[in-house]
Write a structure and sequence with these properties.
This protein has 2 domains: 173 residues, Thiolase/Chalcone synthase (Peroxisomal Thiolase, Chain A, domain 1, 3-Layer(aba) Sandwich); 153 residues, 3-Layer(aba) Sandwich (Peroxisomal Thiolase, Chain A, domain 1), CATH 3.40.47. The protein is built from 11 helices and 13 strands. The model has no long low-confidence stretch (mean pLDDT 96). Strand 4, helix 4 and strand 5 form a beta-alpha-beta unit. Helix content is 32%, strand content 24%. The chain is α/β, with parallel strands linked by helices and 333 residues long. The protein starts with a strand and ends with a strand. The structure holds acetyl coenzyme *A. The site of acetyl coenzyme *A has 22 residues, from helix 2, helix 6, helix 8, helix 9 and strand 12.
Protein backbone atom coordinates (compact mmCIF):
# COMPACT_ATOMS: atom_id res chain seq x y z
CA UNK A 1 0.00 0.00 0.00
CA UNK A 2 1.33 3.45 -0.91
CA UNK A 3 0.92 6.49 1.29
CA UNK A 4 2.05 10.10 0.93
CA UNK A 5 4.27 11.89 3.42
CA UNK A 6 5.83 15.36 3.64
CA UNK A 7 9.61 14.99 3.50
CA UNK A 8 10.69 18.64 3.17
CA UNK A 9 9.36 22.13 3.85
CA UNK A 10 10.54 25.51 2.58
CA UNK A 11 9.41 29.12 2.51
CA UNK A 12 10.36 32.57 1.33
CA UNK A 13 9.17 35.92 2.59
CA UNK A 14 10.33 39.15 0.91
CA UNK A 15 12.66 41.30 3.02
CA UNK A 16 10.54 44.47 2.71
CA UNK A 17 8.77 44.75 6.09
CA UNK A 18 5.68 46.99 6.13
CA UNK A 19 4.50 47.89 9.62
CA UNK A 20 1.01 49.11 10.47
CA UNK A 21 2.58 52.53 11.00
CA UNK A 22 3.98 52.42 7.42
CA UNK A 23 0.44 51.98 6.06
CA UNK A 24 -0.60 55.35 7.49
CA UNK A 25 1.23 57.06 4.61
CA UNK A 26 -1.36 55.62 2.19
CA UNK A 27 -4.58 55.60 4.26
CA UNK A 28 -6.13 56.81 7.49
CA UNK A 29 -5.53 53.90 9.83
CA UNK A 30 -3.72 53.06 13.03
CA UNK A 31 -1.68 50.29 14.57
CA UNK A 32 -4.32 49.99 17.29
CA UNK A 33 -7.23 49.55 14.80
CA UNK A 34 -5.40 46.90 12.78
CA UNK A 35 -4.08 44.92 15.76
CA UNK A 36 -7.39 44.92 17.59
CA UNK A 37 -9.37 43.57 14.61
CA UNK A 38 -6.84 41.30 12.92
CA UNK A 39 -3.82 40.72 15.20
CA UNK A 40 -1.51 41.91 12.41
CA UNK A 41 1.54 44.02 13.33
CA UNK A 42 3.44 43.87 10.05
CA UNK A 43 3.48 42.13 6.69
CA UNK A 44 6.03 41.70 3.86
CA UNK A 45 5.74 43.33 0.41
CA UNK A 46 7.67 42.07 -2.61
CA UNK A 47 10.37 44.22 -4.19
CA UNK A 48 9.69 45.08 -7.83
CA UNK A 49 12.56 43.89 -10.04
CA UNK A 50 13.74 41.38 -7.43
CA UNK A 51 10.78 39.17 -6.49
CA UNK A 52 8.05 37.64 -8.62
CA UNK A 53 5.34 35.19 -7.63
CA UNK A 54 7.33 32.42 -9.38
CA UNK A 55 10.75 33.46 -8.02
CA UNK A 56 9.45 33.46 -4.44
CA UNK A 57 7.96 30.02 -5.05
CA UNK A 58 11.26 28.82 -6.52
CA UNK A 59 13.15 30.01 -3.43
CA UNK A 60 10.69 28.21 -1.14
CA UNK A 61 10.89 25.08 -3.31
CA UNK A 62 14.72 25.03 -3.32
CA UNK A 63 14.66 25.04 0.47
CA UNK A 64 12.03 22.27 0.60
CA UNK A 65 13.96 20.12 -1.91
CA UNK A 66 17.22 20.55 -0.02
CA UNK A 67 15.61 19.62 3.29
CA UNK A 68 13.99 16.57 1.66
CA UNK A 69 17.33 15.66 0.10
CA UNK A 70 15.66 15.51 -3.31
CA UNK A 71 17.00 17.02 -6.55
CA UNK A 72 14.82 19.06 -8.92
CA UNK A 73 15.21 16.29 -11.50
CA UNK A 74 13.62 13.76 -9.16
CA UNK A 75 10.31 15.68 -8.97
CA UNK A 76 7.48 14.08 -10.99
CA UNK A 77 4.80 16.78 -10.73
CA UNK A 78 4.25 20.34 -9.52
CA UNK A 79 0.95 21.44 -7.97
CA UNK A 80 0.99 25.23 -7.66
CA UNK A 81 -1.66 27.29 -5.89
CA UNK A 82 -1.99 31.05 -6.32
CA UNK A 83 -4.61 33.69 -6.98
CA UNK A 84 -2.00 36.31 -7.85
CA UNK A 85 -0.10 34.84 -10.82
CA UNK A 86 2.59 36.78 -12.67
CA UNK A 87 0.69 36.53 -15.97
CA UNK A 88 -3.02 36.19 -16.76
CA UNK A 89 -1.82 32.96 -18.39
CA UNK A 90 0.17 30.72 -18.38
CA UNK A 91 0.28 30.20 -14.62
CA UNK A 92 3.27 30.91 -12.41
CA UNK A 93 3.83 27.16 -11.92
CA UNK A 94 5.29 27.03 -15.43
CA UNK A 95 7.59 29.96 -14.73
CA UNK A 96 8.80 28.30 -11.53
CA UNK A 97 9.31 25.01 -13.37
CA UNK A 98 11.51 26.85 -15.89
CA UNK A 99 13.51 28.56 -13.14
CA UNK A 100 14.15 25.27 -11.35
CA UNK A 101 15.05 23.41 -14.58
CA UNK A 102 12.28 20.85 -14.21
CA UNK A 103 11.28 20.88 -17.88
CA UNK A 104 8.97 18.14 -19.06
CA UNK A 105 7.12 17.24 -15.87
CA UNK A 106 3.44 18.11 -15.44
CA UNK A 107 2.36 21.34 -13.79
CA UNK A 108 -1.09 21.68 -12.26
CA UNK A 109 -1.98 25.30 -11.61
CA UNK A 110 -4.83 25.77 -9.18
CA UNK A 111 -6.53 28.68 -7.48
CA UNK A 112 -8.85 27.82 -4.59
CA UNK A 113 -7.77 31.01 -2.83
CA UNK A 114 -6.95 30.69 0.88
CA UNK A 115 -7.67 26.93 0.70
CA UNK A 116 -5.28 26.56 -2.26
CA UNK A 117 -2.44 24.86 -0.40
CA UNK A 118 -4.66 22.22 1.22
CA UNK A 119 -6.38 21.57 -2.12
CA UNK A 120 -2.94 21.22 -3.75
CA UNK A 121 -1.76 18.85 -1.01
CA UNK A 122 -4.88 16.76 -1.52
CA UNK A 123 -4.17 16.47 -5.26
CA UNK A 124 -0.59 15.37 -4.49
CA UNK A 125 -1.86 12.82 -1.96
CA UNK A 126 -4.22 11.25 -4.52
CA UNK A 127 -1.55 11.01 -7.25
CA UNK A 128 0.85 9.34 -4.84
CA UNK A 129 -1.65 6.91 -3.35
CA UNK A 130 -2.70 5.73 -6.82
CA UNK A 131 0.96 5.01 -7.57
CA UNK A 132 1.08 7.49 -10.47
CA UNK A 133 3.90 9.62 -9.02
CA UNK A 134 6.55 9.25 -6.31
CA UNK A 135 7.67 12.84 -5.66
CA UNK A 136 5.49 15.93 -5.93
CA UNK A 137 6.27 19.58 -5.20
CA UNK A 138 3.32 21.42 -3.65
CA UNK A 139 3.50 25.21 -3.66
CA UNK A 140 1.51 28.23 -2.46
CA UNK A 141 2.75 31.68 -3.50
CA UNK A 142 1.16 35.14 -3.48
CA UNK A 143 1.90 38.76 -4.27
CA UNK A 144 -1.10 40.58 -2.81
CA UNK A 145 0.53 43.96 -2.29
CA UNK A 146 0.14 45.14 -5.89
CA UNK A 147 -3.57 44.64 -6.21
CA UNK A 148 -4.98 45.76 -2.87
CA UNK A 149 -6.52 49.22 -2.81
CA UNK A 150 -4.33 51.17 -0.39
CA UNK A 151 -6.61 54.23 -0.38
CA UNK A 152 -9.13 54.95 2.40
CA UNK A 153 -11.78 53.20 0.31
CA UNK A 154 -9.97 49.85 0.42
CA UNK A 155 -8.39 50.11 3.85
CA UNK A 156 -10.47 47.45 5.65
CA UNK A 157 -9.10 44.86 3.19
CA UNK A 158 -5.70 46.35 2.37
CA UNK A 159 -4.34 46.14 5.90
CA UNK A 160 -4.87 42.37 6.03
CA UNK A 161 -2.83 41.03 3.13
CA UNK A 162 0.87 40.33 2.60
CA UNK A 163 3.24 38.55 0.21
CA UNK A 164 5.15 35.27 0.56
CA UNK A 165 5.57 31.68 -0.58
CA UNK A 166 5.74 28.20 0.91
CA UNK A 167 6.44 24.74 -0.46
CA UNK A 168 6.37 21.08 0.55
CA UNK A 169 7.93 18.00 -0.99
CA UNK A 170 5.42 15.15 -0.82
CA UNK A 171 6.73 11.63 -1.39
CA UNK A 172 5.52 8.05 -1.53
CA UNK A 173 6.07 5.83 1.50
CA UNK A 174 4.97 2.38 2.58
CA UNK A 175 5.15 3.39 6.26
CA UNK A 176 1.60 3.83 7.61
CA UNK A 177 2.94 5.43 10.81
CA UNK A 178 4.10 8.68 9.12
CA UNK A 179 1.76 9.90 6.38
CA UNK A 180 -1.08 12.11 5.26
CA UNK A 181 -4.06 10.41 6.89
CA UNK A 182 -6.81 12.22 4.99
CA UNK A 183 -7.83 15.38 3.20
CA UNK A 184 -11.32 16.87 3.00
CA UNK A 185 -12.30 19.54 0.47
CA UNK A 186 -15.45 21.66 0.32
CA UNK A 187 -16.83 24.69 -1.48
CA UNK A 188 -20.03 26.72 -1.75
CA UNK A 189 -20.18 28.96 -4.80
CA UNK A 190 -23.35 30.66 -3.59
CA UNK A 191 -21.04 32.99 -1.68
CA UNK A 192 -18.58 33.70 -4.53
CA UNK A 193 -19.18 37.46 -4.46
CA UNK A 194 -18.72 37.76 -0.68
CA UNK A 195 -14.96 37.75 -1.25
CA UNK A 196 -13.79 38.32 -4.81
CA UNK A 197 -11.94 40.31 -7.43
CA UNK A 198 -14.06 40.79 -10.55
CA UNK A 199 -11.52 41.86 -13.16
CA UNK A 200 -9.93 41.18 -15.55
CA UNK A 201 -12.97 38.97 -16.11
CA UNK A 202 -13.62 37.33 -19.47
CA UNK A 203 -17.41 37.58 -19.44
CA UNK A 204 -17.33 41.26 -20.33
CA UNK A 205 -17.97 42.91 -23.68
CA UNK A 206 -14.23 43.53 -23.86
CA UNK A 207 -11.66 42.17 -21.45
CA UNK A 208 -9.01 44.82 -21.99
CA UNK A 209 -8.67 46.99 -18.94
CA UNK A 210 -10.42 50.30 -19.44
CA UNK A 211 -10.28 53.35 -17.23
CA UNK A 212 -13.95 52.73 -16.55
CA UNK A 213 -13.23 49.24 -15.20
CA UNK A 214 -10.49 50.62 -12.97
CA UNK A 215 -12.72 53.46 -11.73
CA UNK A 216 -15.53 50.99 -11.03
CA UNK A 217 -13.13 49.16 -8.68
CA UNK A 218 -13.32 45.84 -10.52
CA UNK A 219 -9.66 45.14 -9.89
CA UNK A 220 -9.97 45.57 -6.13
CA UNK A 221 -10.75 42.92 -3.54
CA UNK A 222 -14.38 43.11 -2.45
CA UNK A 223 -15.04 41.50 0.92
CA UNK A 224 -18.16 41.16 3.00
CA UNK A 225 -16.13 40.88 6.19
CA UNK A 226 -19.06 39.97 8.37
CA UNK A 227 -20.16 37.08 6.13
CA UNK A 228 -16.59 35.82 5.82
CA UNK A 229 -16.18 35.81 9.59
CA UNK A 230 -19.48 34.02 10.26
CA UNK A 231 -18.91 31.30 7.67
CA UNK A 232 -15.21 30.88 8.47
CA UNK A 233 -15.69 30.09 12.15
CA UNK A 234 -18.33 27.45 11.36
CA UNK A 235 -16.58 25.83 8.39
CA UNK A 236 -13.11 25.73 9.96
CA UNK A 237 -14.46 23.85 12.96
CA UNK A 238 -16.65 21.57 10.84
CA UNK A 239 -13.88 20.50 8.48
CA UNK A 240 -11.44 19.83 11.33
CA UNK A 241 -14.06 17.70 13.09
CA UNK A 242 -14.81 15.88 9.84
CA UNK A 243 -11.11 14.98 9.50
CA UNK A 244 -10.91 13.77 13.10
CA UNK A 245 -14.08 11.68 12.79
CA UNK A 246 -12.89 10.05 9.57
CA UNK A 247 -9.80 8.87 11.45
CA UNK A 248 -11.57 8.02 14.71
CA UNK A 249 -9.71 10.76 16.55
CA UNK A 250 -10.79 13.69 18.71
CA UNK A 251 -9.57 17.30 19.22
CA UNK A 252 -7.42 16.24 22.23
CA UNK A 253 -5.40 14.05 19.84
CA UNK A 254 -4.26 17.09 17.80
CA UNK A 255 -0.62 17.96 18.52
CA UNK A 256 -0.64 21.10 16.36
CA UNK A 257 -3.32 22.96 14.42
CA UNK A 258 -2.01 25.04 11.52
CA UNK A 259 -4.93 27.20 10.39
CA UNK A 260 -4.89 29.47 7.37
CA UNK A 261 -3.80 32.82 8.78
CA UNK A 262 -6.95 34.77 7.91
CA UNK A 263 -7.43 36.86 11.02
CA UNK A 264 -6.34 36.16 14.60
CA UNK A 265 -9.91 36.53 15.82
CA UNK A 266 -11.05 33.70 13.51
CA UNK A 267 -8.22 31.39 14.68
CA UNK A 268 -8.94 32.17 18.34
CA UNK A 269 -12.63 31.46 17.92
CA UNK A 270 -11.91 28.10 16.25
CA UNK A 271 -9.36 27.21 18.93
CA UNK A 272 -11.93 27.89 21.66
CA UNK A 273 -14.62 25.87 19.89
CA UNK A 274 -12.27 22.88 19.73
CA UNK A 275 -11.08 23.52 23.31
CA UNK A 276 -7.44 23.51 22.24
CA UNK A 277 -4.77 25.17 24.41
CA UNK A 278 -3.03 28.19 22.86
CA UNK A 279 0.27 26.35 22.40
CA UNK A 280 -1.38 23.85 20.06
CA UNK A 281 -2.37 26.49 17.49
CA UNK A 282 0.11 28.26 15.21
CA UNK A 283 -0.38 32.02 14.76
CA UNK A 284 2.14 34.02 12.74
CA UNK A 285 -0.30 36.47 11.15
CA UNK A 286 1.22 39.09 13.48
CA UNK A 287 4.37 39.13 11.31
CA UNK A 288 3.17 38.23 7.81
CA UNK A 289 -0.50 39.22 7.56
CA UNK A 290 -2.72 37.02 5.44
CA UNK A 291 -0.73 35.51 2.56
CA UNK A 292 -3.63 33.46 1.12
CA UNK A 293 -2.31 30.19 -0.43
CA UNK A 294 1.11 30.72 1.16
CA UNK A 295 -0.07 31.17 4.74
CA UNK A 296 -0.34 27.51 5.76
CA UNK A 297 3.03 26.36 4.36
CA UNK A 298 4.80 29.41 5.85
CA UNK A 299 3.22 28.73 9.26
CA UNK A 300 3.99 25.00 9.03
CA UNK A 301 7.60 25.80 8.11
CA UNK A 302 8.04 28.07 11.12
CA UNK A 303 6.46 25.51 13.44
CA UNK A 304 8.79 22.82 12.08
CA UNK A 305 11.85 25.08 12.47
CA UNK A 306 10.84 25.80 16.08
CA UNK A 307 10.70 22.06 16.83
CA UNK A 308 6.92 22.15 17.25
CA UNK A 309 6.39 19.38 14.65
CA UNK A 310 7.97 16.10 15.73
CA UNK A 311 7.76 12.57 14.34
CA UNK A 312 4.54 10.93 15.50
CA UNK A 313 2.71 14.25 16.06
CA UNK A 314 -0.81 14.67 14.72
CA UNK A 315 -0.76 17.85 12.63
CA UNK A 316 -3.97 19.34 11.31
CA UNK A 317 -3.97 21.86 8.46
CA UNK A 318 -7.23 23.76 8.00
CA UNK A 319 -8.31 26.48 5.61
CA UNK A 320 -11.22 28.71 4.71
CA UNK A 321 -11.34 31.22 1.88
CA UNK A 322 -12.99 32.86 -1.06
CA UNK A 323 -15.31 30.67 -3.08
CA UNK A 324 -16.28 29.99 -0.34
CA UNK A 325 -13.83 27.09 0.01
CA UNK A 326 -12.80 25.19 3.10
CA UNK A 327 -10.53 22.17 3.57
CA UNK A 328 -8.48 20.15 6.04
CA UNK A 329 -5.55 17.76 5.97
CA UNK A 330 -4.67 15.47 8.85
CA UNK A 331 -1.05 14.34 8.93
CA UNK A 332 0.70 11.83 11.19
CA UNK A 333 4.19 13.36 11.05
N1 LIG B 1 -8.24 51.65 9.74
C1 LIG B 1 -9.09 52.42 10.44
N2 LIG B 1 -10.42 52.39 10.29
C2 LIG B 1 -10.91 51.53 9.38
C3 LIG B 1 -10.07 50.69 8.61
C4 LIG B 1 -8.69 50.78 8.81
N3 LIG B 1 -7.82 50.02 8.14
N4 LIG B 1 -10.86 49.95 7.81
C5 LIG B 1 -12.13 50.29 8.04
N5 LIG B 1 -12.16 51.26 9.00
C6 LIG B 1 -13.34 51.91 9.59
C7 LIG B 1 -14.47 52.04 8.59
O1 LIG B 1 -14.38 53.21 7.86
C8 LIG B 1 -15.66 52.02 9.49
O2 LIG B 1 -15.80 53.27 10.10
P1 LIG B 1 -17.28 53.92 10.39
O3 LIG B 1 -17.91 52.96 11.34
O4 LIG B 1 -16.96 55.25 10.96
O5 LIG B 1 -17.94 53.93 9.06
C9 LIG B 1 -15.27 51.04 10.58
O6 LIG B 1 -13.84 51.03 10.62
C10 LIG B 1 -15.76 49.64 10.32
O7 LIG B 1 -15.45 49.31 8.97
P2 LIG B 1 -15.70 47.92 8.32
O8 LIG B 1 -15.29 47.95 6.89
O9 LIG B 1 -17.10 47.51 8.67
O10 LIG B 1 -14.63 47.06 9.05
P3 LIG B 1 -14.86 45.91 10.09
O11 LIG B 1 -15.13 46.44 11.44
O12 LIG B 1 -15.79 44.91 9.49
O13 LIG B 1 -13.40 45.29 10.11
C11 LIG B 1 -12.34 43.38 9.19
C12 LIG B 1 -12.80 44.81 8.94
C13 LIG B 1 -11.30 43.42 10.30
C14 LIG B 1 -11.72 42.80 7.96
C15 LIG B 1 -13.57 42.56 9.63
O14 LIG B 1 -14.56 42.62 8.64
C16 LIG B 1 -13.27 41.15 9.88
O15 LIG B 1 -12.71 40.80 10.88
N6 LIG B 1 -13.67 40.27 8.93
C17 LIG B 1 -13.52 38.86 9.01
C18 LIG B 1 -13.02 38.32 7.75
C19 LIG B 1 -11.52 38.37 7.58
O16 LIG B 1 -10.78 38.46 8.51
N7 LIG B 1 -11.10 38.28 6.38
C20 LIG B 1 -9.71 38.22 6.15
C21 LIG B 1 -9.32 37.60 4.91
S1 LIG B 1 -10.41 36.51 4.19
C22 LIG B 1 -9.78 34.99 4.37
O17 LIG B 1 -8.63 34.79 4.49
C23 LIG B 1 -10.73 33.91 4.34
Amino acid sequence: MKYATITGLGYYVPDNVITNEDLTQYMETSDEWIQERTGIQQRRYFTYGKDTNASMAAAASRMALERANVTAKEVDLIVYATITPDYFFPGSGFLMQRELGMDGIGVIDIRDQCSGFVYALSIADQFIRTGTYKTILVVGSEIQSTWIDKSNQGRSVAVIFGDGAGAAVVQATSDPAHRILSTHLHADGRFAEDLYVKDPGSSRPNRSATKEMVDEGGFNVVMNGNAVFKHAVVRFTEVIQEALKANELSPEDISLLVPHQANIRISDYVRQQLKLPEEKVINNIQRYGNTTAASIPIALNEAWEQGRVRPGDLVCLAAFGSGFTWASALIRW
